[in-house]
């Protein structure tokens, strides 16, 4: 009997304690919280994706367009972006203050990328990459979103190849556009010199004009121009006006964006910008005015 009573009393005390605890909790719900009303939980990280794109009309060298798509139902504000990957040297977080609205259409963020890493020279392919986006949601909460870029990426492959080609050209040759002189027909003639820096055998296969000017070479029209190892070569070139419309001249982003294809030690031709010093630029502008009939 003693053990039975102990069991009954124990059960009673347990029931009483449970009831008291329940009443206490219920009462607490009726009383005002001294700390004030509970704050709302912070918003979830937004659903963002990104791709790497090339927008030639709006981009300077060393810049890639990161197209960010907001798959949520509220706008977000991008405060920072960092490009991560093995193919370009890191530049750290780049500051932004751009709103990305919810839409199936992406919003471009123009970001710089670091020096190219070229394990396979001009044949290097871009490694997988991602962007880290520092964003704010409408409630002011800060979030860090890591968005992997599609791989393989034709955009990053192209930018890497161009950068690696530029490194190869810079290491092997100096390219110099000489003085320009007016020909009898009003065009400008000059010489494009390729000077080897490390004893390489250099050649040229083609030149191409810009949005406003043509550039031609009778020598290259007849075939590639090539030199012996360590020998400089000079390619004669002729510049002429290509576009005269006022809107074309005013809107031209790269009026002196000429290209020359250079061969190093018998390899494949590499496209590289043709540098144009300031005096030659002034001469080209004057020629354009004259050829287009503008005298003011």
Radius of gyration: 33 Å
- Give unreliable regions as ranges: 1-31
* String of helices and strands: HEEEEEEEHEEEEEHEEHEEH
- Measure the end-to-end span: 122 Å
Figure out the total of helices: 5
How many runs of DSSP E, i.e. beta strands?
A: 16
| Subunit arrangement of the protein | single chain
Name of the level-1 CATH class of the largest domain: Mainly Beta
Structural class: alpha+beta
Beta-strand residue percentage: 25-35%
Largest sheet: 5 strands, antiparallel
Helix content: 10-25%
Integer tally of domains = 2
Mean pLDDT: 87
CATH architecture of the largest domain: Sandwich
- Characterize the overall form: elongated
Descriptive tags:
single chain; 296 residues; alpha+beta; Immunoglobulin-like; 2 domains; five-stranded antiparallel sheet; four-stranded antiparallel sheet; 5 helices; elongated; disordered N terminus
């Amino acid at each position: 009997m003693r053990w039975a009573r102990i069991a009954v009393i124990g059960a009673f005390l347990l029931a009483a304690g449970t009831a008291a605890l329940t009443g206490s909790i219920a009462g607490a719900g009726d009383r005002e919280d001294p700390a004030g009303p509970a704050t709302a939980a912070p918003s979830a990280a937004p659903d963002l994706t990104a791709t790497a794109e090339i927008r030639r009309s709006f981009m300077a060298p060393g810049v890639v367009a990161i197209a960010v798509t907001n798959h949520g139902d509220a706008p977000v504000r991008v405060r920072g972006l960092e490009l991560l990957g093995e193919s370009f040297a890191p530049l750290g977080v780049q500051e932004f203050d751009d709103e990305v609205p919810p839409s199936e259409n992406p919003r471009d963020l123009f970001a710089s990328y670091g020096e190219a890493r070229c394990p396979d020279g001009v044949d290097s392919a871009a490694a997988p990459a991602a962007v880290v986006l520092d964003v704010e949601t409408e409630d002011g909460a800060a979030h860090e979103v890591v968005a992997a870029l599609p791989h393989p990426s034709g955009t990053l492959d192209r930018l890497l190849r161009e950068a690696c080609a530029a490194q190869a050209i810079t290491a092997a040759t100096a390219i110099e556009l000489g003085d320009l002189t007016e020909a009898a027909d009003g065009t400008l003639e000059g010489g494009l010199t390729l000077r080897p820096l490390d004893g390489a055998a250099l050649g040229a296969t083609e030149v191409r004009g810009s949005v406003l000017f043509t550039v031609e070479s009778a020598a290259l029209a007849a075939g590639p121009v090539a030199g012996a190892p360590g020998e400089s070569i000079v390619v004669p070139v002729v510049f002429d006006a290509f576009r005269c419309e006022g809107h074309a001249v005013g809107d031209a982003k790269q009026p002196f964006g000429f290209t020359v294809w250079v061969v190093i030690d018998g390899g494949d031709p590499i496209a590289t910008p043709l540098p144009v010093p300031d005096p030659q630029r002034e001469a080209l502008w004057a020629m354009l005015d004259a050829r287009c009939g503008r005298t003011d």
